[in-house]
Write a structure and sequence with these properties.
By secondary structure, the chain is an alpha+beta fold. The chain is built from five helices and 16 strands. It has two domains: 17-79 and 195-264, Mannose-Binding Protein A, subunit A (Mannose-Binding Protein A, Chain A, Roll); 84-191, no CATH class. The strands form five sheets. The protein has a four-stranded antiparallel sheet with strand order 11-3-12-13, with helices on one face. Residues 25-133, 148-246 form the C-type lectin domain.
Amino acid sequence: MDETLMVILLLSGFCTPCTPFRNDYLFINKNMTWDEAYQYCLMEQKELAQIQSLENNTSMLNTQTAGYTDKAWIGLFENASDWTWVDGETATYFEWGNVQPDNIDTDEYCVTIDNDGRWGFANCSLKKPFVCQDDVDLEKLHEGEGEMTWNDAKTSCTESGWLLATIPDSKVNSDVQSKVNQTEIWIGLSRPKLWHWSEAGENNFTNWQEGQPDNSNGEDSCAAVVLKDGTWTDEPCNATYPFFCYGDRSGMCGIVSLRKAWKVY
């Protein structure tokens, strides 16, 4: 094909989806944060390691690491999903107070209602009063016993055959509001954080170490592989580790990657 025509085709978007030429792993023995490692791999026309199978994981572990056996970053990170009720439904009705969701703190993914009927955010591990609700008749409510974390309140309601309160409209919001005797109580809305690969695409393979991910530091949103056994752990993204890059994208039409938002390079 004429070189000029080839350039025109590439610039016109007539290129196939970007995929690595080779499934090679490269160990980079430089301590960096997760984001720094991610950018480094892109600069080298690669991706922060993508692992789609046990064979991939083993191949990565067989990469030469010059005797290093501790943790190394891979291209897996945690990001917030949609606001979701405990029954699995995505929320469409909201009664936010003065603080809007886009100002949310990283640890504040569980929702409260105050005695004005306004919703707010709180760390899910805090103990607060709560209201349970019949899963059919949403106007049938009863107050939970004592104060609990959001997850414990959810479990308490479920074990009693109820749900942590779900609020689909202003009428139910007023009903739940009437149960608020203190400053604020838990309702059944949260924004669960899900694990994604930095390279867009479906991939359900995981190899978590037993008990992981556990978010033990409250901000463990990036994944590392333990080179001694190949299992994965969740780590603070600002921790510094060596890392694995993956693939070879030199000569491709472009790179499209996912990291909290779409990025095009």
